Amino acid sequence: MSAADLRVSSLEIAKALEGQIIGVEDLEEHFAHLAWSNICEPGDGFAGLLVGAFGAAKALAIELEEPNASRLSSLLVKAGLDHEDQKVFGRLEVNLRDARERWRSRKSLALVLESLERIRALEGTVLTPGSQLWPQQLGDLGRHAPHALWIRGRPEVIEGSNRSVAIVGSRDATSYGELVTSELVGPLVAKNFTVISGGAFGIDGMAHRSVLALGGNTIAVMAGGLDRLYPSGHIPMFQNMIRSGAVISELPPGMAPTKWRFLQRNRVIAALSQATVVVEANWQSGAMNTVKHAEELGRPVGAVPGQVTSPKSAGCHKLIREQRATLIADSSDLLELLNESGAARPQDLQLPGLGALETRALDAIGFSVLGLEAICADSGLTKDEARIALGSLELESLVSRSSDGWRRSQTTL
What we know:
elongated; 19 helices
């Protein structure tokens, strides 16, 4: 493999991108972003500095020439980046040497072409910052913004992520955490919010499944290539998301999920979302890392309180105590965090799936008091579906919960 083979003509670029162009005006810039997506690790600030100064295509052309630090510094000054700006990561000479050591084995046309072939085989696509559907809020990451988003699913869901909320939390969630998550999701779907999370077990998975049950839009951000969906135990859920929502990654297919990439993935979750809500989290956890990124971006953070003795809620309690997060006790608090006024109205909830779930749960309860298992048996709902329906009905004050089970709050609707 040779770096020189990335010097390709416009005709060769058009051929390589055949079938992968969605709302792209500048094919050379688009191709260069794909190359940078293969060359550098997520969040590589030095690559971001070059792309921000020159544009992706010119930055790639300059790097393929491998100018020395003095020459590169002069080019950066001509591009409007003074010497003080160049010191943002330290000495330019050291950063350039280290960057080239990281990038050397990946500067190859073969890798770019292979990633494009793999995404075609997956029936996916890829967006770059010049694409019409590119989520502009990712620009808030500055020099650490992704160069591309590789997508399996509906690309238009990505465009709708400008109205979205991240729901994150413990992989080892409690039944309380899962119940709260399902109850928070209903009003978000009703108000056409996209729910974004990381696809993990626990809170992430419950957030995604709840949205899917309600017919809403949800996005899972992966820490590796889309041909290596993780965790494998959630592949059926991911397949459902690919049909109705989207599974995305800034890494091209073929890349393995690693600890570093999980941590970098969290910045994308935070940047895509208007706000981040933590349902359950230990103090040192991936969810808290997402909060850190949200804080750095100036995005609002919400946290759900739990039992004071539960280590699963220790992170949430500390965030609330330190006034770094708004306490989220119910969906009204969450909607207020998102600057949405009022709870979801019954007419808002007539979305595919939601009305049917509520109706079946209400029919099962009748005018008696029933426990969850009895409601499931009478309605034919799964426990997850029943919890979602009951949470929405309770929000609308149509049912109430007691130690004996659930009952209608009203005799007429």
